[in-house]
Amino acid sequence: MPELPEVETSRRGIDPHICGRSILEVRVRQPQLRWPVSPEIINGLTGQRFLRTDRRGKYLLLYTESGCVILHLGMSGSVRIVDNSQEPRKHDHVDFVFSDGVILRYHDPRRFGCILWSKFPVEEHELLRDLGPEPLSDAFGADYLYERSRGRKTPIKSFIMDSHVVVGVGNIYANESLFMAGIRPQAAAGSVSRARYQALTGHIKAVIARAIEVGGTTLRDFVGGDGKPGYFQQSLLVYGRGGEPCKSCGSLLKEIRQNQRASVYCPSCQR
DNA sequence: AAATCTCCCTGTAGGC
DNA sequence: TGCCTACAGGGAGATT
């Protein structure tokens, strides 16, 4: 599943190939994603160019002179750069066809992603308007989480995965960072101390920053390859390891479900 | 307001 | 081997 580092790695991978090139055509083989592909994208982009790219949470933003494509990869989505000699494969739903035979190809087997159009200012689009701060920004830190969490009884794992609190902390990083901070995922967010939020935010920032660095080493994969950035290489401490021994103390890791999501933790290291 | 539930979809894994 | 079913999961929207 694409986490924030993969989205950022995708953005960096496609940016130099699509910016400045004329859009000849947008080919949509399957418009039914999470929401239908915006008609403005299917019909209205010909002759325009992407000027720059950006990212907000896990949303990729592709700016033209008249507006902005909002693209989300969902659970199984990917984008890559191919040339016009490469036939689309199964689940290659959308092609942005540029001059010089360059194609930005969107692939998404489960179709939980979306490709939407927004006029300026895109920050006021309803999908982006109420999002929390970026995890790597200075606005996100122990003081912020501490203040936001007072009075909240929701489990801390649900709290840090809430995109209105902070963007880009998916299930994998929530599990991993809570383990590193020694906090049980069930703990009420409002009862976690400032000091523990200090540890937690530090680990969230570190794990995401490191994953972006690792992804950067595999940028070449975005051109003609399978579009898979390198976060798969990273070793996971708890995620997917329920029932296996804790890498720190050897206790058996517990797996529970919170909000229909798997949570794995060490009953000894996390309190 | 906050917490919880539902739904979208298909590849994969497990059972027989 | 192959068929069948259960299930995972980001995140918005509905419901409690």
Report what the structure shows.
The chain is an alpha+beta fold and 271 residues long. Helix content is 27%, strand content 20%. The protein has 7 helices and 10 strands. The strands form 3 sheets. It has a 4-stranded antiparallel sheet with strand order 1-6-7-5. A 4-stranded antiparallel sheet has the order 2-3-4-8. The chain is elongated. It starts with a helix and ends in a 6-residue tail after the last strand. The mean pLDDT is 89. It binds a DNA duplex (16 and 16 nucleotides) through residues 1-2, 33-34, 58, 72-76, 91, 108-113, 127, 151-154, 158, 161, 163, 170-171, 259-262.
Number of helices: 7
- Sheet of most strands: 4 strands, antiparallel
Radius of gyration: 20 Å
Helix content: 25-40%
Number of strands: 10
Q: Report how far the terminal alpha carbons are from each other.
A: 28 Å
Shape: elongated
Q: What is the SS-derived class? A: alpha+beta
Average per-residue pLDDT, rounded, comes to 89
Query: What ranges have pLDDT less than 50 throughout 5 or more consecutive residues?
Result: none
Going across the major beta sheet, what is the strand order? Answer: 1-6-7-5
- Fraction in beta strands: 15-25%
The string of secondary-structure elements, in order, is HEHEEEEEEEHHHHHEE
Structural descriptors:
20% strand, DNA-binding, four-stranded antiparallel β-sheet, alpha+beta, 10 strands, 271 residues, 7 helices
Quickly describe the structure.
With 271 residues, the protein is α+β, with helices and mostly antiparallel strands.
Summarize the helices and strands and which ones pair or pack.
Layout: H1 4-18, E1 23-28, H2 39-44, E2 52-56, E3 59-63, E4 68-72, E5 78-83, E6 92-98, E7 102-107, E8 114-118, H3 126-129, H4 142-149, H5 156-161, H6 171-181, H7 194-216, E9 254-258, E10 261-265
Antiparallel strand pairs: 1-6, 2-3, 3-4, 4-8, 5-7, 6-7, 9-10
The structure holds a DNA duplex (16 and 16 nucleotides).
